Amino acid sequence: MALLSWLSESTDERPEAVRVDDRSVSWVELRRMAAAVAEDLGGVGRVAVPATPSLETVVGVVGGLLAGAAVVPVPPDAGPVEREHILRDSGAEALLTPAGGAVVDSPAAPPAVPVDLTRRSDTRHLEPDPAATALILYTSGTTGAPKGAVLSRRAVAACLDGLADAWSWTPDDRLVHGLPLFHVHGLVLGVLGPLRLGSRLHHVGRPRPERYAAATGSLYFGVPTIWSRIAADRDAARALRGARLLVSGSAALPEPVFAALADLAGHRVVERYGMTETLITVSARADGPRRPGTVGLPLPGVRTRVVDEQGGPLPADGMGELQVRGDTLFDGYLHRPDADAASRTADGWFRTGDVATVGPDGWHRIVGRAATDLIKSGGYRIGAGEVEDALLAHPGVREAAVVGTPHPDLGQQVTAYVVGDGLREADLIDFVARHLSVHKRPRQVRLVDALPRNAMGKVQKNLLAQA
C-alpha cells in the first residue's frame, strides 16, 4: 500500500478536501500539484522544505514523498545558526521554496526548486520501498545542536494506521488543527494522516480559539496551550460540542483544562504520548474511557515497559523510565552513532528518558523527564543545552544554565540563569531569538553572581528550578 494511499487513489475533485488558512484544493488537484513538484525533484535523495503553515508546504512535502525523497522540514522561525545546521547536517540536495518567494539567505542552502501551485502533472511515480526514509525531523536533545531523527515510510504508515484504529479515524472525518508543520503532531498526524486515511483537513493557520470554533470539524488536534486558551473562551469551547473527538498531545494536559472542556465542550479529551523518535506509541481510544492525567494504552504493534535505574522490571504502578519498541520507531539519528547507542538498550528497547507508571490495567501515566534538560513549552520540546550554547556565544556571558519553570499558559517557560558583565535581560532574549527558533528564546533571564554547583563542578539545576 502506498504511504499516502488515499491521495494516490482518490478520484474526488470536490473542493475543500485540504484547506490551509483561506486556500483549498481537491484531492485530485493536490495530487497533480505535488506530482509536478515530484517531476522537478527527479533523482533528489533529500529535500528541505521551509515548513510554513501554507499550502505550498503541504504540496512540497507531498511532492517530495511522491518523488521518493527524504523530506527535511525546516522550522520557519529558525535562526541562521539552526537553519544552517539543519541544511548542512541533513545533506539536503534541494530546497523547495514558494514560486516568486524570497530566497533563503544561507551559505548552506542547496539549489532552490520552486513550488508553483499553478503547475499540474499527471505523472505517476513508483512507490518507494517501505524501508526508505520518509522524513528527517530535527529534535532538540539535552546538549548540543538538534539531531536528525530518520523516520521510514513503514514507521509513518504504522503510526497512522494504529491511530486510525485507536481513534476510529475515517474518511468521514474532517480534521481541524493549527499546529506547526515541522513536528510529528502537525506534520505526520496533521497532514500525512488525512492523506493516508482520507479525512478532509482544515489547517486554520494561527491556532486561535475563534478559528477552531469556526472550523466545524469532527476531529480536532491541539497541544495543552491551545486547549487552555479554548477552555478560557467559553463561546469557543461550546462551539466544539458538535465534534466527534478532541485530541491533545506534546505535553501533559492540565486536569483543570480537561475538566473545563468536559463541561463546556462536552468532550473528555483523548490524550496520547509519543516522541519524534518513536512517533505515537500510546493513546486513549475513541471507544474507551479517557482519564485525566493519563495517556492510555499502547497502539497496535507497540510494546512498552517501565524499568528501574538498573534496567530491571518494575511492578504495576512502579515509577521508572518508560522504554518502547515496535513498528513506529525511527531508524536512528543521522550521523550520530554515539547517540544511537546511548538511546537503545542491549536488548533493543528505546530509552525515552521519560518517567512513567503503568497501572495493573495497562494504562500509562507520564510523570516527567528523567532529567531537567528537556523543556516542554507550549507544545514544543526545547533542549536546554542548545539555548545555553546560544547564550554562551554572547561576549558578555561567562556562564549560563537553562531550566523549565512553571508557566500558567505554556506549561513550562524557558528560564535562563546567567553570570556575566554589563548584561541586560532584553538584550540576551533578543540575542538568542536571532540565533535559534523564536520559541526557544528565554522568556526570563535572571542575572546571578554564581551558579550552584556540586563537588564535581556540575550545575545543580534542580536548585535553579526551585528558586
The low-pLDDT segments are none
| Count of the domains | 3
Q: What would you say the CATH architecture of the largest domain is? A: 3-Layer(aba) Sandwich
Largest sheet: 9 strands, mixed
The H-level CATH homologous superfamily of the largest domain, spelled out, is ANL, N-terminal domain
CATH hierarchy class name of the largest domain: Alpha Beta
CATH third-level topology of the largest domain: Rossmann fold
Helix content: 25-40%
Q: Main sheet: which strands, in order across?
A: 2-1-10-9-11-12-13-14-15
* Beta strands, count: 25
Content-based structural category = alpha/beta
Compute the average pLDDT. 91
Tally the helices.
Answer: 14
The fraction of residues in strands falls at: 25-35%
Radius of gyration: 22 Å
Shape descriptor reads globular
Distance between the termini: 54 Å
